[in-house]
């Protein structure tokens, strides 16, 4: 039984790794069969654990978002509040920039419980990173926590067409955005950050 | 004959307007039939003028990109070099933010002659806006002209999920990016801007 469980666990990991690889290379528009082939397991093995493609995509997205949430919580341990926010921004953008899956697939599984949980963990930690940096005077005070993931998504997309030819290009645009977040900002931000209600509405208008 | 020509011209405009509307609402993944219905003309009328969907998408994208190129050249007429760049950035982003077509369709028709022509016009004018603002000390000197459209695309995408619930959200992220472009930048940009060769390579890897 233990051997069977170990085999099942190993298969699960192989499927998730294969799915993450295929999604990262080509986006979420790939078949479960292709994932099974890449993982070297049968279609039935994948299908038993992930009866729908949404379930498979959600598992991959959740795994990736857990890394992002871990990075946000790890950054909170740093003494320097400005460095902590920059460190998180770099790690999160590096992960997204290498991986078409996170950006393109997330909208389709945004309501799945495991995905919601990791997003809430991340937003909670980012909220603390933002408040701390603002309290210490190293971050513009009109920034809201929800701005951070949206800005990082923008940075990822600015560089996305160059993923193959200059995979580090996102660093150039992240540096510009981080400079724009300093407390010496010239402008007051002209439009309010999205409210929780707007975030919910946007999620449904994208998913629907 | 003149009447016929006037009719044909009017039909062409109706088709382009209808196509732009449908693309703006729902992206380029719509059929020629749907565009014909919206324009109130027959399938054959659309098909005669635009024998492939690429031709139709290219015509719409070219029309939109001409507005962007016009905005860049108009901005060059302003006396204040900083205001000129900001003015162009706002107009270009406003157009993209309202219009899924430009962002999603451009990659598919990037090599079409009319599209290439408008892109080159825009990049030429943006190059002059950038150099002028740098010469006058109101723009960080390590910015390259090609960074401008990539940053604006990032701003558009940062706000894209909120298009329906807060169509002006892009203004918030544009303000942050523009603050990051001031000459009082904290960082030197850590990665070079894409070269012409990289831009060509990226175009082909996206289109292919």
Q: What profile does the largest beta sheet of chain A have?
A: none
Determine the N-to-C terminus distance of chain A.
Answer: 43 Å
Q: What is the mean pLDDT of chain A?
A: 89
Tell me the fraction of residues in β-strands of chain A, as a range: under 5%
Helix/strand-derived category of chain A reads mainly alpha
* Annotation field: number of helices of chain A: 10
What order do the SSEs of chain A take from the amino end to the carboxyl end, as H and E? HHHHHHHHHH
Give the oligomeric state: homodimer
Largest interface: A-B, 46 and 47 residues
Helix content of chain A: over 70%
What does this structure look like?
The structure is a homodimer of 208-residue chains. Helices cover 71% and strands 0% of the residues of chain A. Chain A contains 10 helices and no strands. Chain A starts with a helix and ends with a helix.
Quick rundown:
2 copies of one chain form a homodimer. In chain A, 71% of the residues lie in helices and 0% in strands. The first copy, chain A, is an all-alpha fold and 208 residues long.
